[in-house]
Amino acid sequence: MVRRTGRRPGNPDTREAILSAARTAFAEKGFDGASIRAIATGAGVDPALVHHYFGTKDKLFLASMNSPIDPIDLITEVTAGDRDEIGVRFVRAFLNMWDGPRGAAAVALLRSVVGTEWTAKLFREFILTQILRRAVPKLGLDAAEAHLRITLAASHLVGLALARYVIKVEPLASAPTDTLVAAIGPTVQRYLTEELPGVFPA
Amino acid sequence: MVRRTGRRPGNPDTREAILSAARTAFAEKGFDGASIRAIATGAGVDPALVHHYFGTKDKLFLASMNSPIDPIDLITEVTAGDRDEIGVRFVRAFLNMWDGPRGAAAVALLRSVVGTEWTAKLFREFILTQILRRAVPKLGLDAAEAHLRITLAASHLVGLALARYVIKVEPLASAPTDTLVAAIGPTVQRYLTEELPGVFPA
């Protein structure tokens, strides 16, 4: 699933060895605990080569998960603009990703996350370090509420993706994007920015 | 996964042969197209034995999917009582099922549905024939809107189950039931019974 482009030099075997070592390290030690140095040692290469191939640790992590997107791009797109419209922008950007050329990779990722415990563990790290840690500052939420608010919204969206793109339940699977944005956008808006009576301790 | 109790007579191999033939028939022909007679023939037994072991075709279908519950029980529980509280009852009953002794079977079912196309196909039949067909009359919804309303609610709940019980994302995984009922109940209520501007054609 890793795309190789003209801009990425090097031996495919070396790249794959680094990705394999990275998967093991991230699954065993978590994102913060896994060092580029240890991953390089695991792959039998120099740490400089890891940086050369993959750039930052974030980028290496996303590549090791075969992530179809860098969530920071989605977060940046969604948080730019009117705060009262963040819900509808979020749902629209999410659906556009799944309906676009990267949708097949997203289905593959979702299947693998559900299928095995170690990919589930990687995905927890993904949500924590690539989504929550990067989204909270941009969303301007109360720190005590932010993680529950974002995971409520994310759980709805991942369920929508599961129903629409993996299980393909009708009429969800064929519903126009605008219909789903109108239905689900207000829910995501409520989870992210509105009062949620009974949810947070007073 | 199939529970055998003192009330269920017969040879385990025969039961398994019937379930195996049922899975194939339901996946290939759908719930309505698969006949008890053809399933019995596939298993090399008399149709009366299929009825004797499993009762109705609905029950045989649920057994063939290793369904942890009969959705009609959940639907009956949720639709009894005040219509304005249906959302919170739905979320509470759903979480209680996953947190109860049948939760492990529910996780296994969700994993298998995501893992393979033929279980996804079976699950589509499950949603159509065991949930939608049975829930719509009890919910008293407009027939033109009912399927989208119910699948919107169901997609949220399946996403919640995925995040909380399979991927185990915090803080969702450890959130008290009451917190999630307070957060998600109003969403399910809105999807099922409230106005959804922009969702249904005028």
UniProtKB/TrEMBL annotation, chains A, B:
Domain of life: Bacteria
GO MF annotation list: DNA-binding transcription factor activity; transcription cis-regulatory region binding
HTH tetR-type domain sequence ranges: 12-72
PROSITE patterns: HTH_TETR_2
Residue spans binding DNA: 35-54
InterPro entries in UniProt: Homeodomain-like_sf, HTH-type_TetR-like_transc_reg, HTH_TetR, Tet_transcr_reg_TetR-rel_C_sf, TetR_C_16
Keyword terms of this UniProt record: DNA-binding
Protein name per the record: TetR family transcriptional regulator
Annotated organism of origin: Actinoplanes italicus
